[in-house]
Amino acid sequence: MSVPTKATTTADTATADTGTKTDPSPRHRRGAALPLTAALVAALVLLCLLSAGIGAYDIPLGDVLSSLQHRVGLGGAALDRVGESVLWNVRLPRVVLALLVGASLGCAGALMQGVFGNPLAEPGVIGISSGAAVGAVASIALGLSFLGNWTVTVCAFVAGLATVLLVYVMSRSGGRTEVVTLILTGIAVNAFAGALIGLCIFFADNAQISQITFWQLGSLAQATWPKVLAVLPCALLGLAVAPFYARKLDLLALGERPARHLGVDVERLRLVLVLVVALLTAAAVAVAGIITFVGLLVPHLLRMAAGPGHRFLVPGSALGGALVLVAADLAARTVAAPAELPLGVLTALFGSPFFFWLLRRTRRRQGGWA
Questions:
Q1: pLDDT at 62 exceeding the cut of 50
Q2: Domain extent at residue 190
Q3: Which residues partner with 173 through β-bridges?
């Protein structure tokens, strides 16, 4: 399988999504970043407002805006008691949690692809999500509570960090990371993590088994403001740090040796970003369970539209990931109402065909990736 391992920079010719080696208009693609960002922000705001109002108890968009204005002291009017309770205690915590989880997974995916220098790297695909889930599931099965509400988050972070370091070390050979090795290592890690989760289920009681099932399927059904506050510091820290490394990721795309000549400490850069990826992924998994393919799909679509420059790609992937997950969560709780589809199952259902297409497309390419 012949696959590329290095990305082009925004200053160089970028690979077009048609399968040709060069893009005849890279400047046009770079110029798409600003309008695309504006479109993502506008779509995200609109979708969040719609998601807050749509459900078993419908709340008109105007009423949602009125209640929001009333809460922040900009006029408006409060809803009736039931409407206020549904909006502020059920819908908005879920929407905010979807924003944080989606942004974390999208940003983590963009960072993974930049760090490993290939388009197939994604936290879920190479086992980081499963590793973080093992930490969370083990803490549930063992009844750990040494840090109170932070116990599950910390356990997920530690396990996710250990997993990403393991995958990173095992997939490197001769100073480079091969896509095939990365995927095969991820398959092995996912299988091992699945075995550990199964072992936890075997020893767990009925109440713990129901909690563990949540981690395996992925869901935002249990969203509350305390859970939002629990994941908020991890997500904000990772999302705030990531854009500062965009320029270094562009230099790393030239290759390790050129990046070193340009003053980039490659090993330190990778170590820091691996920690950021583990933090973002663990934060998402700690509250939502295993949700795959968001970090793989979103960066690719944005890269095809606006080029491989990380100054747009990193924050753009956070916006795109948030948009995708808010939309997926809305679909999960409305498509089969009154039942609710597992969010992780829904994202995998649509993400798997995209991953298959991506594998075939990458195999056909002989140089560069977009």
A1: yes
A2: 104-364
A3: 176
